[in-house]
Amino acid sequence: MNSLINDSVEELLLEVEKTAVTGSETSQLVVYNDDVNTFDWVIQCFMEVCSHTFEQSEQLSLIIHFKGKAIVKTGSSEILKGMKEELITRGLSAVVTTFAE
């Protein structure tokens, strides 16, 4: 089972890297674990707000559960800030971090 999770995590991280915006500034939407939200709710939020597939959303929810946080989307800060606000409205803990490449 751990091998399956590790393979899934690696595939997800590669997918996040592929969708990264090129340029001088990139932002990441980071979601943190909590003891309030269910897996089903977090998965639904990622599907509706971030346009992730069910599989991506499920994998991200597991990463967040076991690691404490995960980068759920990478892109421009303008787009990610709107997603962050929507996730917060839905009860998730999220931040946008921006860094220069």
What does this structure look like?
- This protein is an alpha+beta fold and 101 residues long.
- Strands 2-1-3 form a 3-stranded antiparallel beta sheet.
- Helix content is 55%, strand content 23%.
- The protein starts with a helix and ends with a strand.
- Mean pLDDT is 86; it is low at 18-22.
- It is built from 4 helices and 3 strands.
- The chain has a single domain, classed as Ribosomal Protein L30, Chain: A (2-Layer Sandwich).
- The chain has helices at 2-18, 39-50, 54-67, 77-89, and strands at 25-32, 69-75, 93-100.
User: Tell me, what is the CATH class?
Assistant: Alpha Beta
Q: What percent of residues adopt helix (DSSP H or I)?
A: 55-70%
Radius of gyration: 13 Å
Terminal Cα span:
35 Å
Number of strands: 3
Q: Kindly report the oligomeric state of this protein.
A: single chain
Number of helices: 4
Average residue pLDDT: 86
Give the tally of structural domains: 1
* CATH architecture heading: 2-Layer Sandwich
The parts where pLDDT drops under 50 for at least 5 residues are 18-22
Indicate the proportion of strand residues. Answer: 15-25%
- Specify the CATH homologous superfamily: Ribosomal protein L7/L12, C-terminal domain/Adaptor protein ClpS
Report the sheet with the most strands, covering strand number, pairing sense and barrel closure.
Answer: 3 strands, antiparallel
CATH topology category name: Ribosomal Protein L30, Chain: A
Q: Sketch the topology as an H/E string, one letter per element.
A: HEHHEHE
Counting helices, strands and paired strands, the structural category is: alpha+beta
Q: Widest sheet: strand order? A: 2-1-3
Shape: globular
